[in-house]
Specification:
heterodimer; B: mainly alpha; 2 domains; two-stranded antiparallel sheet
Chain lengths: 166, 398
């Protein structure tokens, strides 16, 4: 049952991810990305990280992607026209992609050789308590620094937007 | 009973799913009748009266009308998203009922089961996640209709829902801090023992402000008056569902009412103690439903016998006798086990739903900038302050 669910949602995630690139209209791409987020949440759930799955849906699918869709709707962006591709891209695109993936696989294999098999539901640190404890003890500094960084980004965006308004 | 454990689990689950969804869909249809009746009486007119006694068959007639209407797809819409949007809205609206507990553990014919479809240990987050996906239904409907009114309605609703989700989530966190759990069932069990144990009155910091913030944000989340800007008919025709007809329109309509029910259930569970009676049974709380139904039955009988309308002389005594039978049923000891919690849950949820309708009949609509200013400048800081104070007091609790 777990394996069937895993395969189904992994395939959906990959198909949606391909669809993000293939679609010419930004809204369709954004909706496909929501599909990717949703399937990833199901994969987290299969591993036993239920809080992470819920957070994935609430934060990424529910907040960030809604903002994306909102901005696309607000700007009323139309679909992209297909331009003629360069000869280089047509010839070398697929072989370079395969080479890149092979390199990635090689480095992952080299860097994490002793990684054990992942079991469905075997991850126990995914509860609210564990994540909360980790965020407020082990990872307190990175967590706070990240939040300050995001605050700076928001302030920067406001400053840039105000200049245009005046 | 030598059924395999798994088999009886599946059978019980299927029965529960069927019962819950049948009841939910009926309540959805009749909530609309109640709304029309209450608003009509607020405005001193009779409301639906023609189909069946007191318009009681009106929802059925509406359903038949909506199903048999022509399902028109306008030529310039983005077809896949136009069709996807109502499905998304109604699915997400109906999905969240699956984690709502209606009562405690009950035993039916030797089989113990919970009055809930499934108990997730992240139940609260599940409801939040599902409702945040529901935003897409409205946003996509507005965009894919290819109509400026729909687009404006969709834009308004997505902006409004994102903005009000923040104070709502912050208001939800405070009772979770007090109860120290994310499971809706445990949340209610921690509030048992009477009114003064409910989160709205109990704890290091009574959540009365949290409750008010949650309710205000919930009104905005469900696009109801006074926050129904996405479908402000005098500026936007019908807002995001202008181009929809037949069952697709009905899906949005049902989604709105289903969201209202979910939000009322959540308010009941988080702040008002779920299915717990306002005071313990040893002080006679189990006779309250009997008293209420008996009083309602007697009033209906009294009015029925001296009514000026000929029709009421038949219909009101029937209603009165039905109420008296209900009152008698509440006295039977074998059904009290599950009927009493169900009564209290429905009473609290129904009270909140009535407040929804009452406010719709009372308040005018906000202006759009007032709506946004209200959430960011008042509601969000207030929710933050409420959370901070609650957090401090919970941390200092011995």
């Amino acid at each position: 049952m777990d394996v069937i669910l895993f395969l189904a949602f992994a395939i959906i995630a990959v198909l949606c991810a391909i669809n993000v690139v293939v679609q010419t209209h930004p809204i369709s791409s954004a909706i496909s990305l929501v599909g990717v987020m949703g399937s990833l949440a199901v994969l987290y759930l299969l591993l036993g990280a239920e809080f992470l799955a819920a957070a994935q849906v609430i934060v990424y699918a529910g907040a960030i992607m809604v903002l994306f869709v909102f901005v696309i709707m607000l700007l009323n962006a139309g679909s992209e026209g297909k331009k003629g591709r360069s000869l280089m891209a047509q010839l070398l695109g697929v072989p370079l992609l395969v080479a890149f993936l092979a390199l990635m696989a090689y480095f992952v294999e080299r860097l994490f050789p002793s990684t054990t098999m992942v079991h469905f539901g075997g991850f126990t640190g995914g509860g609210v308590k564990e994540i909360g404890r980790a965020l407020f003890t082990t990872y307190l500094l990175p967590f706070e620094v990240t939040s300050v960084l995001i605050l700076i980004a928001i302030l920067g965006a406001i400053v840039l937007a105000r200049k245009e308004m005046d | 009973m030598h059924l395999l454990n798994l088999d009886s689990f599946i059978v019980i689950s299927v029965i529960k799913v069927v019962v819950v969804f049948a009841v939910l869909l009926t309540v959805l249809a009749y909530l609309q009748w109640v709304e029309r009746k209450v608003i009509a009486h607020i405005q001193v007119r009779p409301g639906p009266y023609r189909v069946g006694p007191h318009g009681l068959l009106q929802p059925l007639a509406d359903v038949i009308k909506l199903i048999t209407k022509e399902d028109l797809i306008p030529p310039h819409v983005n077809k896949p998203l136009y069709i996807l949007a109502p499905f998304l809205a109604i699915t997400m609206a109906l999905l969240s009922i699956s984690v709502i507990p209606f009562g405690p553990k009950i035993t039916v014919d030797g089989y113990a089961t919970y009055m809930q479809l499934t108990d997730l240990n992240i139940g609260v987050l599940f409801v939040l996640a599902v409702s945040s996906i529901g935003v897409y239904g409205i946003a996509l409907a507005g965009w894919s209709s290819n109509n400026k009114y729909s687009l404006l309605g969709g834009l308004r609703s997505s902006a409004q829902m994102i903005s009000y989700e923040l104070p709502m989530s912050l208001a939800i966190v405070a009772p979770l801090l007090i109860s120290n759990t994310l499971s809706l069932r445990e949340l209610v069990e921690k509030q048992s023992g009477g009114m003064w144990h409910w989160n709205i009155l109990h704890g290091p910091f009574p959540q009365i402000f949290g409750f008010l913030i949650f309710m205000i944000a919930a009104f905005a989340e469900t696009n109801r008056v006074p926050f129904d800007l996405p479908e402000a008919e005098n500026e936007l025709v019908a807002g995001f569902h202008t181009e929809y007809s037949s069952m697709k329109f009905a899906s949005f309509f049902m989604a709105e009412y289903a969201n209202m029910i979910t939000v009322s259930c959540m308010a009941t569970l988080l702040f008002l103690g779920g299915w717990v009676a306002p005071w313990p049974a040893k002080y006679g709380s189990s006779y309250v439903p009997v008293a209420i139904f008996a009083a309602a039955g007697l009033i209906a009988l009294f009015h029925g016998f001296q009514s000026a309308h000929r029709r009421d002389r038949l219909s009101l005594p029937v209603v009165g006798v039905t109420f008296l039978i209900c009152a008698a049923v509440f006295l039977l000891p074998m059904v009290q086990q599950w009927l009493l919690p169900l009564f209290w849950f429905c009473a609290k949820t129904g009270g909140i739903l009535f407040a929804y309708i009452w406010i719709r009949g009372t308040l005018p609509r906000f202006r759009y900038d007032q709506l946004m200013g209200f959430t960011w400048k008042f509601l969000f800081p207030a929710a933050m302050l409420n959370l901070l104070v609650t957090g401090f007091l919970v941390a200092l609790r011995p």
